[in-house]
């Protein structure tokens, strides 16, 4: 029967078609594409360059120089490098947040129902959203690295171009986890306002309760506790270990394990919840 | 295959444990016919169609499409049906052809076959010249036709159309009807559609089921349903002031005559033949007929008869809804 119809069915058929549909909205729209490039430049310029942290440290005390102070607190003597890496986590968070929004749009415009009436698997519908957000974030992470290098990012002593692949790997993991969560949150809502509110509520706290812009060891205890379970902390640390620190391999392995477990658990919960909801 | 391409028995959907959208609905759609669900907004049409196309699971009862159970064999059902939803689901940012190919991918159709079919289908719905234009630039009628092309990409044996002409102007609506008739004729396809347009059900459907508050009140061919009301309505006025309803009632084939606001509302079979006899009978008694009109019953009268209310009222809110949706679509861009 399906042979006659010209259907070559695998469990994953339609995954790339649906993912590419999302991606096309981005790379085929020059304005949106351009904005997604300008945004990290703006943020890095504002946070990394305008906030010249090293200028706050007095230089007239013997034995203290801005470099040593920063090295001791941030792990690198250059705040811009520290913060540029934080931008990568920031991008992951904000890009994946929109994967939830696009589910709401698909529902409101009827596309979701249409897809549900075809033999494409429910899991594929959800995973295409996850995958497109992940691919977008990975592209933007690459872009941020290029821009940051142009702005004067200082690589760590044992940096090799291979480390970039590690950055992509950790980005992949954290984005799969995050967008699964956002989709599970938004899939039930028919209004765009509800997920917007939820996402706005959790995004910035999640961002600042991590080591993305500020080292966790100077945070109050309660905040440190949150930062310690926050996957963004581990993501940011992994990227720092790979790009700007002299790599601590044990720490890096711990980061990857933590984010990996987060990705698997979040994706499982997210996809199971969404799947159940879609097959009601 | 047993009798009935689509069969439903006691099909029921209850939302949130107390809102019964579809209430023990049963029907059977024959091979090659256009079967319509007619009813106002909120009657349960879309919920029924959503159960048949396996988007919603029934709370109770069962249904099958080509003998595949909609709840247990949903993947098989999805393979043999085509769906043309109420909304314009085509992606605005993609071209006409890209949209049809996207649908093909959802069915897992090989690219080479998909391209061939897409070309044929776009020709069928006369969008060949627009295949490489973004859907943003399409008119409502073109979008509807594109949805039709998408719904046909898997060569379905049964096509489901949810409000196929919602929000379209009269001209475009008639054109869309022609495409639907063509499908039925050329492909021998079975079509299940919902509509709240009485004219549409009348012009297009072989049989209609009138649905109200989740229940089917009557099923039959439009002609048959209209005929079951007992014929045509003649409205007539005379110059004189006397009550002549008794006189009119005596004319052959007249079933009833009532005086309303100075004119007479007469129910009669074969109205076009009976009317001259009524005029003749009145003239013999010296009355002068000043005006006369003849209306054949429409499905609105059928609806009125079975549900006790007019369907026209429900229509307006629906139009407003469609307009709102278009506004939202623009807001997205």
Gyration radius of chain A, rounded:
21 Å
Overall shape of chain B: it is elongated
Biggest beta sheet summary of chain B: 6 strands, mixed
Mean pLDDT of chain B: 87
Q: What is the third-level CATH name, the topology of the largest domain in chain B?
A: Rossmann fold
Please describe what this structure looks like:
The complex is a heterodimer of chains A (280) and B (333). Chain A is mainly α. Chain A contains eleven helices and no strands. Chain B is of the alpha/beta class and 333 residues long. Chain B folds into two domains: 221 residues, Rossmann fold (3-Layer(aba) Sandwich); 67 residues, 2-Layer Sandwich (Alpha-Beta Plaits), CATH 3.30.70. In chain B, the strands form three sheets. Chain B has a six-stranded mixed β-sheet with strand order 6-7-8-3-9-10, sandwiched between helices. A four-stranded antiparallel β-sheet of chain B has the order 2-1-4-5, with helices on one face. In chain B, helix 3 crosses helix 4. At the A-B interface, helix 1 and helix 5 of A face helix 2, helix 3, helix 4 and helix 12 of B.
Brief overview, please?
The complex is a heterodimer of chains A (280) and B (333). Chain A is mainly α and 280 residues long.
